[in-house]
Design a protein that fits this description.
heterodimer, A: 120 residues, alpha+beta, Sufe protein. Chain: A, 3-stranded antiparallel sheet, 6 helices, 22% strand, B: 418 residues, alpha/beta, Aspartate Aminotransferase, domain 2, Aspartate Aminotransferase, domain 1, 2 domains, 7-stranded mixed sheet, 17 strands, binds pyridoxal-5'-phosphate
């Protein structure tokens, strides 16, 4: 079966939360995957341990962009503790497809950004 | 060309459309047989044994040196050194000859279309010695910027090489690839070397033949280079074995690369004297089976004929170019020369709005193997201003049907993302 399910293509072509947030209020981070040339910039606004806003921009393959998009939707309104509890399997689970080890890196790029933001 | 039957991988995977020979080639039965024969009937160490199967192993190993020498028209088999591959061959030169020849204020010149294997060792040498690291750029035709062609009707292409702005009498090393693994550009290396030696007769020239040796006749005496490197695995041979050819006089003057067994003449408590070239550079037990497999690969290639292979690839490349242009010209951007004489059997491209990894993955769903990424040529991709590209590369076992499948596959890619 193709991993290019409609849902993934939809998130790739119309990523959710694909915006920058108000500077000054938000924290931001840049991550990249030099192997593919994927780049992601992510910003969050966190208040009282809860994710208020999240936005990202970047370029990458369908899997990395769709994954960041789905993760951003999932993260909004969740508590910091809940989000830090996510593991790689949960993140891939959001995509709803099976991935080869090679594509794992793509799928987890958004998560890497999120973890960095939550931890700093 | 009816050779698919010689490659057992197509029995295991009849559906496979293998378009990644630029990364590594498939292996024909005679190569596999040669390796199995060594391991099952005379798997002894070389050089030291005084018994029959060791003598046979030594003879086969040394015979390969002669076969390689003839393959690249080297004056002597003693100039052929077995390594792990192109990468090690180039590192050998950079780490032994490099520090002896290059000092602060000197220059090392390479090109932006090099594989990292012929780029990073020289960048590192420049860094360690304080030499200037100069990189020849490419032009709009995806050829080296120092090469100008006058396309005079009827007279063919007249080459003009202008190295005056790059090579000076301080340039100690020129490292250059015969064929770009990404652009497929065939560089006029013979002419470039001749021009470089006019400016500086003492320049050392190192040629990366990893993408050329599998497809093009190589003649080191005609090229007039000083070193030439290639890998067995890209030319139907085993992984883990490669060749460094160098001029005897230079090799003799260079210090050993690694120290230990097999590279010595005599060892005492006080000092060690080294074996002569080429054994001076082959410390430790080598990849004997690999070397023997390489002999079978060269023999196989020569039986078919490199000219015939190159012609076959030219036809496939032109066929692919025509089809892709007819069917997908609006969606695809190509990165490579336009003229088939300057093009290897490599087609590298991007598709608007679609990441190369996604292209490769959708093609894989149709059993088509291509490569996506930066192909170990990051400086080139930076220069092209793209993060990555997709590459299809052809070899003797590919057919027009493979090209048609590729075109169909890419149409499906386009449709998926439309
Ligand atoms: C032009 C070129 N140079 C060098 C190399 C490195 O060869 P190896 O990995 O066999 O050492 C390659 C292979 O990818 C290549 O295409």
């Amino acid at each position: 079966m193709s991993i290019y399910a409609d849902l993934i293509l939809d998130h790739y072509q119309h990523p959710r939360n694909n915006t920058l947030l108000t500077p000054g209020v938000s924290k931001s981070v840049d991550v990249n995957n030099p192997l593919c040339g994927d780049k992601l910039h992510m910003e969050i606004i966190e208040k009282d341990g809860v994710m208020q806003e999240i936005g990202f921009t970047g370029e990458g393959c369908a899997i990395s962009i769709a994954s960041a998009s789905m993760l951003s939707e999932y993260a909004k309104g969740k508590s910091k503790a809940e989000l830090l509890d996510l593991n790689a399997q949960d993140v891939v689970g959001l995509l709803g497809i099976d991935l080869t080890p090679n594509r794992m890196k793509c799928a987890l790029l958004g998560w890497e950004a999120l973890i960095k933001l939550l931890n700093n | 060309m009816n050779v698919k039957k010689d490659f057992p991988i197509f029995e295991a995977h009849p559906e496979l459309i293998y378009l990644d020979s630029g990364a590594t080639s498939l292996k024909p039965q005679p190569v596999i047989d040669a390796i199995v024969e060594y391991y099952s009937t005379y798997s002894a160490n070389i050089h030291r044994g005084l018994y029959k199967i060791s003598e046979k192993a030594s003879a086969e190993y040394e015979e390969t040196r002669s076969v390689v020498a003839r393959f690249i028209n080297a004056p002597s088999p003693d100039e052929v050194i077995f390594t792990h591959g192109t990468t090690e061959s180039i590192n050998l030169v950079a780490s032994t000859l490099g520090p002896e020849r290059v000092t602060e204020g000197d220059e090392i010149v390479t090109t932006v279309m090099e594989h990292h294997a012929n780029f990073v060792p020289w960048q590192q040498l420049a860094f360690n010695t304080g030499a200037d690291f100069k990189v020849i750029d490419i032009n709009d035709h995806f050829e080296l910027s120092v090469v100008e062609k006058s396309d005079r009707r009827g007279e063919g292409h007249q080459l003009v090489i202008d190295l005056k702005r790059v090579i000076t009498n301080k340039t100690k090393i020129l490292a250059i690839t015969l064929v770009s693994n990404t652009l497929g550009t065939i560089n006029p290396v013979k002419e470039i070397i001749a021009e470089a030696k006019k400016i500086n007769p003492r320049i050392i020239t190192v040629v990366d033949a990893a993408q050329a040796a599998p497809h093009n006749v190589i003649d080191v005496q005609d090229l007039e280079c000083d070193f030439l490197a290639f890998s067995g695995h890209k030319m139907l041979g085993p992984t883990g074995v490669g060749v460094l050819w160098g001029r005897k006089q230079l090799l003799d003057s260079m210090p050993p690369y690694q120290f230990g067994g097999d590279m010595i003449n005599e060892v005492s408590l006080e000092k060690t004297t080294y074996a002569k070239t080429p054994h001076k550079f082959e410390a430790g037990t080598p990849h004997i089976a690999g070397v023997i497999g390489l002999k079978a690969a060269i023999t196989y290639l020569q039986q078919i004929g490199l000219d015939k292979i190159r012609n076959h690839e030219k036809e496939l490349t032109m066929y692919a170019g025509r089809w892709l242009n007819d069917e997908l010209s609006d969606a695809i951007t190509f990165y490579g020369p336009r003229h088939i004489e300057f093009m290897a059997g490599i087609i590298t491209f991007t598709m608007k709005g679609i990441h190369p990894h996604d292209i490769a993955q959708i093609l894989d769903e149709q059993h088509i193997a291509v490569r996506a990424g930066h192909h170990c040529a990051m400086p080139l991709h930076t220069q092209l201003d793209i993060p990555a590209s997709t590459r299809a590369s052809f070899y003797l076992y590919n057919s027009e049907e493979d090209v048609e499948k590729l075109v169909e596959g890419l149409k499906k890619v386009k449709k998926t993302f439309s």
